Every structure is written in C-alpha cells, then in structure tokens.
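Sample 3 of the quickstart, ligand nicotinamide-adenine-dinucleotide:
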Amino acid sequence: MKNIKLNNGLEMPQLGLGVWKADNGQEAINAIHWALDAGYRHIDTASIYKNEEAVGEALKTTKVPREDIWLTTKIWNEDIRKGRTTAALDEALARLQTDYVDLLLVHWPVDGYVAAWKEFEQALEAGKVRAIGVSNFMEEHLEDLLEHATVKPAVNQIEYHPYLVQADAISLCDMHDIAITAWSPLMQGNFKDEPLFGEIAKTYGKSPAQVILRWCLQNDIIVIPKSTNEGRIHENGDIFDFELSEEHMVAIDELERGHRFGPDPLD
Ligand code: NAD
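Result:
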C-alpha cells in the first residue's frame, strides 16, 4: 500500500474502498472486511450513502485496529445549506461508532460552504476529524474558499478517470498542495466499452480495471474504486506490483474528452 502525504503532514492511503450504493447491512460489512483482508486501509463513505451504520459495524468487527484505517465521510448538501454541519458530523460519528473520522469533506459546493468550513475548522480543533477537505470544488469554489479559510483543504475529491481529468481544477489544487481523490475512477463500470484498456492490460498480464487504477496512481491520484464483489475487491487492490510505461500512460491520457458520468458541479 502506498500513501500520499497531505499538506497537513498526514499520510493518506492511496487506495480506498468506495461504498456508494452498498447496502447498509451485510453487503457493506462484507465488502469492507474483504477489502481490509486484502490490504486496503481506507474506506470512503458519506452521510448521503445511508450506510454509515454498516461502515461503523464493519470497523468495529474487523481485527484491523481503528487507528490503522483511514475513514472518510462527507457532510451532505441539506446540512450545509441549513448551517447544521457540527450537528450532522456528531450524528455521523454516532452512526460510525467512532470518536473521529480521518477526513471530513464538504460533499458539494452548495450555498453555505464557507460557513460550513468554519465548523470544519472547529471540528479539527476539537479532534473530531484529523483532516478536512472538499469534494466537487471547481476553480471558482476553491478560490472563494481559500480567501476565507484559515486551514487549507487537504483534499479535493472530484470525478476523475481517463475520459475526464479536470486539468484546470487539478493544477489549482497542485498550486496549493491539495491532494486529489478520484471518484468514479472506473467510470462507473463503463470502462468496458473502451478497447484500449484491454489491449494495454494484456501486455502486463493485468485486467482493464487494474490498468485504469494504476494510471491514476502513477498520476499521484488517490483512488476509491467501488465494488461489493470479493473477487473484484481483490483485483482492484492488486495494483502495486506493476508499472505502466510512459507510452501507455500517454495513450490513456489521450482518451480525455471532458465526459462526465456524474453531475457537473457548475450546474
Ligand atoms: P466506480 O468508477 O468505482 O465504478 C464502480 C462500478 O464499476 C461497480 O459498481 C462495478 O459495476 C464496476 N467494477 C468495479 N470493479 C470492477 C472490476 N474490477 N471489474 C469490472 N467492473 C468493476 O464508481 P463509483 O462507485 O461511482 O465511484 C467510486 C466511489 O467514489 C464511490 O463508491 C464513492 O465512495 C465515491 N464517489 C464520490 C462522489 C462525490 O460526489 N464525492 C460521487 C460518486 C462517487
């Protein structure tokens, strides 16, 4: 497992398990246990995924100590709009059965995110979170937030995959040493329609999904592929024993077409 050093000095595991759409029960619990057994040390959830109870249960019942696991959750839009970030965080911590999360994100840049950020900074002071960051923040949101922030975001979690690299947002984050986490790195499963990944995968004796995740890693991006299937969880974790050539990196770079599978933060 490789870590990425954040601008606050913490080391964040570069591979995590995303649990969006995993059921709030045995499905999420099994997926997290399989991932931890396979060496993952990072779980990405959100209050809106409605599975924080199962995440908490999985973390309580694994043999892996809590302090060895990087746990990310996110505050949902309604709570940010209503100015109830601290209450929403306390509710999330109760569901997760933990005293702290490693990373708390503003899920989307909705009205009220500057006020929410003040509450994020207070949560950091209070030790309820170890790092604070944002998600789906484009340049205009980041510039605005940075004007008001005392603590810079450590991470911006954005949609990122070979069809969408969001170079402008990433270069602004690079300037401020804000790490990028890719959501939907596997294009929500749609990578199967792109033959190039299969062609490259054959050269390395790897799968198309592994090639895409490896391309993300080599671009210094944190990845949180989602699966609740044991075989795929193992497959997605087995990406640290090969390296894509410069030629293959460039060939994948050239697939960029500004195509989103998720919503546009500017809409
Ligand atoms: P993803 O790109 O990780 O794709 C997941 C889908 O790909 C799976 O449902 C499965 O159908 C398929 N898949 C996974 N592994 C595979 C494999 N090895 N071979 C073949 N098919 C495979 O999509 P995602 O769930 O949208 O994104 C990952 C995570 O990112 C989410 O679970 C969530 O944690 C996070 N996320 C965050 C935001 C945000 O706004 N911050 C938005 C979307 C997702």
